[in-house]
Amino acid sequence: MRTPWFRSLAFAAVLAAAGTTGLHAETLVVYGDDNYLPVIHHDAAGKPAGVLVDILRKVSARSGDTYEIQLFPWKRAYELARRGGGAVVGVSLTAERSEIFDFSDPMYNDDIQIVVRRGHAFNFAQLGDLRGKTLGGVIGASYGDLVDNAIQDGLFKVDRDIGQAGRLRKLLAGRIDGAIIGNGLAGYEAILRSEPDLWTQRSQLVTLKTPLARDPLYLAVAKSMGQKDVIERFNKALRELHKSGRIPRLTQGAAAKK
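C-alpha cells predicted for Solute-binding protein family 3/N-terminal domain-containing protein (258 residues):
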C-alpha cells in the first residue's frame, strides 16, 4: 500500500521531471522580420517560416510557453516590441538596446555579407576600408556596436531601405557601392532564387570575401513587460535543445540551403 509520504514524493518527482513546462506557461506575441530569407520570412502561403521560427517552435514544445509569431517589415516589428506589445526575434544585441530589452541567449549567428558589382570590388579587411563608401542596408537594423559606431561617426554611409531584393537592384543600377546582405551566402542565394530578374543577373554580382560582421541574433522582451521569467524558460529550453543536438542541426541546415 502506498503511503501519503510516498505519494508526495512521487508527485514531487513528477514536478521535477516536468521542469518549467506547463507550470507557468504563457502566451507571448513574438514579432519578427517578414522578409529576411532564409532566417525568418513569410512562406508562399503567408505563414511564418525560417530557421528562427523553427527554433521558436521547438523551444515552445519544451518550455510550455506559446509563441504567437507575427511578421512585419523590420522597423515596424522592432517598434512594436520596443513599445511592449510583445517580444521580438532576430534582434541584434547593442548597448543601447540592452537598456530597453531583456535578451535571451544567442539563437543564431548571422554572417553579414557585402555584395558588390562585378568589376567594382574593393579590398575589405577592416572597417577603415569602407571609408567614403555608400552601402545599402535595412531601416532600423543594427550590425553590432562596432559597425553601428562607424556608421554614426560618418566613416561610411548607409542608404536605408525595407528589403534586400530592392537593395540588390539598387546596386545593379550603380546607386550604391555595396549591398549589406544578411545570413551569409545562404541568405544571398535565397534572395537571388526568389527574384527571377536578380537570378538572371547574378553573374554581375560578387560577395566580398570578408563579412562585414558576425551578428548573433536573439529573442528580446522589453523590460517594461516584466517577462524575465519567460526569457529564463526560453534559455533553459534552448540550452537543452543545444545539448540534444537539435539546434545545431537546424542552424547547419539553414546555412546549407541553396
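The longest strand covers residues 108-117.
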